[in-house]
Fold CDGSH iron-sulfur domain-containing protein 2.
Amino acid sequence: MLDFYKNLSGSDWASLIPFGVACAAIGFGTKLILDNNLEFLKGKPSKVNLSVKKTEGKVVDTVDMEDIGKQAVFCRCWRSKKFPYCDGSHNAHNEKCGDNVGPLIIKKKES
Ligand code: FES
């Protein structure tokens, strides 16, 4: 087997370069994907919360009904800078990835 490699000429080695580069690119790309925490490629569900209160074990917010005026608009995309309230960031998120998320709007009934 080693004799096979010893008998390769310079042009033979040069012709193997594209194959070697392709193998390296595939290996590097695979490592990059796995190292970048893309759990969906590993069969795990991906994270919804990318930035809200990441130091807390669980994000829980409480809003008193009495503090809601005529209506309150709550974020369901987890991209709002005013979380738990919607700041319209869902529009950029939807444009970026083709999603269709929007806020939860709670209204008081007109009496
Ligand atoms: S910003 Fe998240 S639903 Fe609007």
Summary: The longest helix spans residues 10-35. The two ends are 89 Å apart (CA to CA). The mean pLDDT is 87.
